[in-house]
Amino acid sequence: MTNLNYKKEVTVVGGGLAGLAAIKVLLKTGWSVHLVAMDSYFTFLPLLHELAAGSLPIASLRFDYHSFLQANNFKLTVAQVQQIDLAQHCLITNQEKIDFDYLLIATGSHTAQDKIVGSRQALTLNTWQQAEMLAERLDALSKQGSVINIIGASFTGLELSLEIAEQLKRKKQKATINLLHSHVRLVPWLPEIGHQIIIQALERQGINLYSPERVVAIGPQYILTKTGHYRGDLNILTTGITPNTAILDPALVNDQGEVLVNNYLQVRGQVRVWAAGDIISLGERAIPKLAQTAIQQGRIVADNIIKQQSGRPLQPYQPRIKGLFIALDKMRAVGHINHRLIHGHWVWFVWRTVYFFNIPGWKNHWRLAKIWTRRFLGRH
Predict the structure, then answer these.
(1) Most exposed among 8, 20, 129, 149, judged by the fewest C-beta atoms under 10 Å?
(2) Of 253, 281, 309, which one is at a domain's C-terminal end?
(3) Under 8 Å between Cβ of 126 and 111
(4) DSSP track, 64-82
(5) Burial group, residue 236, by CB count within 10 angstroms (0-12, 13-18, 19+)
């Protein structure tokens, strides 16, 4: 039987999109939330490629949690969680032990670096620090004939390559950009005409696409594939992801490092422990690792915690893909909504609007709107 007088506090590990979505719902309903994160700032990861390319300042996608979470029932601890002890209901951090009543694990993911020999010699794009480092490296590529290799034509790889190409043109810098992808199709969910639209954008920006081309090794200034050798002054890895679950008991994760959850997003075998975002697995049911699914999961977890505490039936999670977009060049985008392909300038504005309303805090909304407006006017 549910104890209605049980302490209404949730501890959230990880302050990304999934964690933040849950926090907003819980705070609005009067719950206390204790966020444990490695940074006092929230980073809007879907725009990280624009920071890396030098197109956006860091203030447009990195926001102090306290600037938009000002409730008295919100607490932030900046610390590194080293272990989650479910038996003792506590977190072991590099600073202190933190007890929890309800727990949401939303630690996110990072670029997989265990599938290619020497992959740790390439730059990756998981954090704002890595994005700034990449921007500095791009600024340093002033010599003629510089070569940039981007490994993996994922959402990030495609948008990053096109953004870098446009930024280099604006700065009147010249560099060769190679985009290498291990499969024939770049974006499987797009119909063939959508695939061709992406190819045309890459061609307009002079980006060399090598597909299928599987990279097998990365060195300081080169990459090796199954068929050849590519020189590279800057190698960037944007392949698949690995969940950040090293702090968990191995019995709770599958072979891919994903947390096993039930249909209500409770960690298997647990009652008051939940998981959301890139780290979860529903078994045979595939879940796209997207910003929108992370946000949906965070909200579902929050609702289910509230329902559980009040003795109501829990709501099962059903993945819903509202639409998918990829930003192209020249303020264009391509998308897929309700099985319909859309593309053009207006799609770029729709894509921007979706991101605009997922930025936390109205002050941050308008700061980003000003930056985008100046950028739009500057291009026209």
Answers:
(1) 129
(2) 309
(3) yes
(4) EGGGT---TTEEEEE--EE
(5) buried
